[in-house]
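If it is no trouble, can you show me the amino acids of a protein and the tokens describing how it folds?
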Amino acid sequence: MGMTTPLITLLGATGFIGSAVLRELAGEPVRVRAVSRRPAPVPAGARADIEVRAADLTGPGEVAAAVDGADVVIHTVLYSAATSTWRIEDGDTEAERVNVGLVRDLVTALADRGTGARATVLFTGTVGQAGPTGGKVLDGTEPDRPSGEYDRQKLAAERLLLAAHARGVLHGTSLRLPTVFGSGPDSTADDRGVVSAMTRRALAGEPITMWHDGTVRRDLVYVDDVARALVAGAGRPEALAGRHWLVGTGVARPLGEVFQQVADLVAAHTGKPPVPVLSVDPPGHADPGDFADIAVDASAFRAATGWSPRTPLEEALRRTVAHLADVRGRQAS
């Protein structure tokens, strides 16, 4: 490959979203530097020239080394504590170091390059940065009033990135994501989200539980569609840079119906009756956001990039059930 082939640094290449982005990039004629704490597995049959770099990005100079010479940086690093969720407590300095500090380091590293071609940086944010919606459909024009610590940290990181864009340091874009879920035959990272958690419960023969009556609605996007959105975004810096964009399917589905689909798909897989879907009392750590409807209008991003979600929910759920059943079978044997 000649020197004109762009170099894309992927931060968080073994994470849930990052590993899907790596699979997507592997089919492109590009150079990829896949950066993560543990070495990322190179997807089979990759067209891309993939360099695997194991690094703890919180170490001194590690972000600068990771993005050295990169034309594009896709930032998918997600801090999560040892728990099974992405929740973080107020004042969690370790989370702040990852969620905000890595963007600060990235901006510093790219500012130190001086003149020359500006790198394109794509950041993965969350629709939760806007805060409680009161049931309104989000389209990216609403003011940001985040309520949770995770959402506050994501917003702080996004603002650092967009301020650097305004100063001419880089071409910065943030894609705010709703609930991303799912697995497929090539998945190499766990989805810790609620859909996969409840799929695992159903496969174990346990009831699916909800902290509400099932009418809470969510825009659920399959992880491979999100990976395609990030790659599409990386290819259109002139159209996207300088602001945030919302990604989603445009359809908010009642979680009770989704969980019933999961129970039925698992039953079809196991040959046993569907497990019950039950409402239970919410735990003490439940957040008001857990009971809020989230609907996303992503038409602006779709118009700017030509991206659209390709995987129908039923197909995404079927793939997820098949993958998690396969994992469970391998673990049992």
Summary: The chain has one domain: 7-254+281-332.
